[in-house]
## 1
Amino acid sequence: MNLFSSRSQILLLFLLLFPGFLLSQRSVQVKQLWEVRDGLDRPESVVLDDANNRLYVSNIVGNASEKDGQGYISAVTPDGSVSAIRWVEGLHAPKGMAIHAGRLYVADVDALVVIDIEHGRVTNRYPAEGAQFLNDVTADSEGTVYVTDSATDAVYQFRNGTFDLWLRGTQIRSPNGIYAEGHQLIIAAAGPEASDPGSERYLHTIHTRTKRVRDIPPADPLGGLDGIEPAEANAWFLTDWPGARVMYFRRGQGASTVLKLTQGTADLEYDQDNGILYIPVMMSNRLVAYQVQQ
């Protein structure tokens, strides 16, 4: 028997049985492109507006739970030039954001703020009954908006002009990062057994029709997860706020650290077309861009 042929056949069989093996060996490298510091004040989230070739950055300013009217949104170009540090003012402690149909949706303590992007002004503020710490925001392809409340183990939904409690339960304790993919939400939250839910989050899916919650394996706590951005099919970039990490997570294989920054590594954005990560670093008041090299 030809030994080389036997080994080749074994290798081929292995790859057919475990198609993710080679992907799991691929490392993700990044190279810093630029950073913005001047004028940012506790930046928590960044979102890319493809239609206007701009990035929007939410600035909490002060206490993340205080309704003080000091928060604002900055506008930055994708090459790191500041268009307007105080593009929209008068918010309280703005955090997660999402864009749909010319509107910027912003989580602001206990309300969802809607900003008309063309005119750069707040058009509506929708209070969330019972909310205490609205955190991350996502919008699906139909314009339904979902917002996590990390303090009350809840997800709120904005649909057809109403903003209501959509889901609350022990399966999604201290939810933070959220991202809509088809008929499911990818969400970072702790499970019922967590002793410190804010630092023991992992990934789950929630079906938007049935509200069924499932763990994404491996269902192990990954830290204080904050932002979620799709990298490719079944893979996401994640941030760990207290751990100061950016991670690459692939379903079934777990997470690997891409880079370490400083505490407050928050709600990131990933431009898949150009392979660029945009990361707000809250406790050092900066927005950093990295080129992804896979």
## 2
Amino acid sequence: MAAVNYTAKRSIITGHVLDTAYDLDLILEQADRSVRTKKNQIRSLGGNTETILQSMDVSWSLTIGSLTGATLNGVREFLDSVQGGEIFTLDVMGSVGAPDNPLSVIADGDYMETRVNNSNLFTISFNVRVV
């Protein structure tokens, strides 16, 4: 389970208003955390190592499944609304390694919609980066 809070910017669904904040609960099929670092390691002839950490990015890869109809349109609104680098909050509840508080994140790359076995059900995968 995950909860997001975003501001509607694009692909506005019926009943929603442009530039208004909304909460959306998502049932996650998968939530994986990853860390990417930029660092410089220097090792002396004596074997001592000094590491200079330049940056660390924490990301989450998320997959939402069994989407159809109005639920699918709501998720499309959310994802389309954050594609311009808009910051939103994400609470990855119950996932291993997830913090107790919601994270401020941005969409990291495009999202992908996949039809499940030629049905009207869809799975959507997307990545976020903690800011």
